[in-house]
């Protein structure tokens, strides 16, 4: 047996005796104990009670490839070229960047946990086991990076669409790539590109969504945060959410090269969390204060300052409200 086999058993939240498990898998009770220890190293809290066995209190919502695939519409399913779910990995984005991009269609990577999950500007993305969505999609564009401006903003709109498909409301977007729920950060997007500026370009889009964060990790988060606890508690599974995300992302990637950000600009602005508010932009150490006035057709932030409206492009840029302390 493997730790994965044992994990599937314990995911139901019930107690399982070491003796029964050993008999079921034809191994010793010591072997079961060793596999439990391996699971604990992933950050899982496993109750060990003499006479009752092992238990993961509350159970786990493990990712299911069959549920994800069954959720896909025909157009998204036709675009899915490669699909992998990992139990634990350094980063889903990093995994896809190590692989050769599919010549056509999408390569998709999900993980139950990440040891080196990343957000923008090199920040650590808290990635506890089976508690959130860690999903990356790789796609090859032929027209080069210059046709992909605004892609991370469009991805934000698509993530909101997928969440709304499951009944989640009160969503908003913070330029350039954060998704808020009730004014607190729920999700983030990391877009990484490699290749020719005007030729074939490989893009990896990483999406992290807080679903049910355990208490022991929340003190690692350095800003107001939210998760889908009230929606995910029996309302839908992480697998269903992953399928809904792919249903939105894959067809959009197939047409983005031809349509660009213009198709999503109006919808992004309708979700803009900072629209017409006083903000401070930190652009590689240079700070600008002004009023946020949405984004242009290329996805650049429009900032009205004392000298006029300036266009702020992505990169090592952070944005916050003037009255907030960041």
Task: Draw up the topology in text.
Layout: H1 3-10, H2 18-25, H3 29-40, E1 47-49, E2 53-55, H4 65-71, H5 74-79, E3 80-86, H6 92-98, E4 106-111, E5 132-141, H7 151-165, E6 171-174, E7 178-181, E8 184-195, E9 201-210, H8 215-218, H9 229-232, H10 238-259, H11 262-270, E10 278-283, E11 286-295, E12 301-305, E13 308-312, E14 317-321
Parallel strand pairs: 3-4
Antiparallel strand pairs: 1-2, 4-5, 5-9, 6-7, 7-8, 8-9, 10-11, 10-14, 11-12, 12-13
Structure report:
The chain is built from 11 helices and 14 strands. The N and C termini lie far apart (48 Å). The protein is globular, with a radius of gyration of 21 Å. The chain is of the alpha+beta class. It has helices at residues 3-10, 18-25, 29-40, 65-71, 74-79, 92-98, 151-165, 215-218, 229-232, 238-259, 262-270; strands at 47-49, 53-55, 80-86, 106-111, 132-141, 171-174, 178-181, 184-195, 201-210, 278-283, 286-295, 301-305, 308-312, 317-321. Helix 2 (18-25) packs across helix 3, helix 4 packs across helix 10 (238-259) and helix 7 (151-165) runs antiparallel to helix 10 (238-259). A hairpin with a 2-residue loop joins strand 7 (178-181) and strand 8 (184-195). A 7-stranded mixed beta sheet has the order 3-4-5-9-8-7-6, sandwiched between helices. The model has no long low-confidence stretch (mean pLDDT 88). The longest helix has 22 residues, at 238-259. It folds into 3 domains: 3-55, Orthogonal Bundle (Arc Repressor Mutant, subunit A); 65-270, 2-Layer Sandwich (BirA Bifunctional Protein, domain 2); 278-321, SH3 type barrels (Roll).
